[in-house]
Amino acid sequence: xxxxxxxxxxxxxxxxxxxxxxxxxxxxxxxxxxxxxxxxxxxxxxxxxxxxxxxxxxxxxxxxxxxxxxxxxxxxxxxxxxxxxxxxxxxxxxxxxxxxxxxxxxxxxxxxxxxxxxxxxxxxxxxxxxxxxxxxxxxxxxxxxxxxxxxxxxxxxxxxxxxxxxxxxxxxxxxxxxxxxxxxxxxxxxxxxxxxxxxxxxxxxxxxxxxxxxxxxxxxx
Length: 221
Description:
Layout: E1 35-40, H1 46-54, E2 59-64, H2 67-83, E3 91-95, H3 98-105, E4 111-117, H4 135-144, E5 145-155, H5 158-170, E6 174-176, H6 188-191, H7 196-203, E7 209-215
Parallel strand pairs: 1-2, 1-4, 2-3, 4-5
Antiparallel strand pairs: 5-7, 6-7
């Protein structure tokens, strides 16, 4: 599905072409659900594929801005569905700019997990405004995340890691989770190497920096 223009609101998003098992085109025997997981800048879909089998009852979407990469992920998912009948029906990819249009796709408090794996570091200071984590964007992320939802971030760039931790820690609606609080979370085991970029970093013996945050209630109210 290529979104050449963003939907006006989440209410008019047509999920039928992405999740036909959950949003039947004929409207019959519908087991309609809402997307709960979002991989921002999903790359070649490695994480989505892992999430599909790990959470078979949850719908996950990847947002990717690059045309060829998005097309690859769509073809990959379609091939998996054909090879494994009944499986991989709960993941999909759309081509869109998450920095601009995320609230157009998701309702308030809809998402339970959000992933930022190896985002573009935009090294030059003049380009920092384009980083996927920023005070303005965090307000939008907080809007679409449910209370208690988890934000997973991984990067191989220490400066970007420090930037991410700083901005998320300073935001009143996010709290960093400690190692003890992450015990039992099955996602932790697949974060570092599930994506193709993560596997590349491993091959090059690069460092990986992980930071995980929880969406909390607004204490000022």
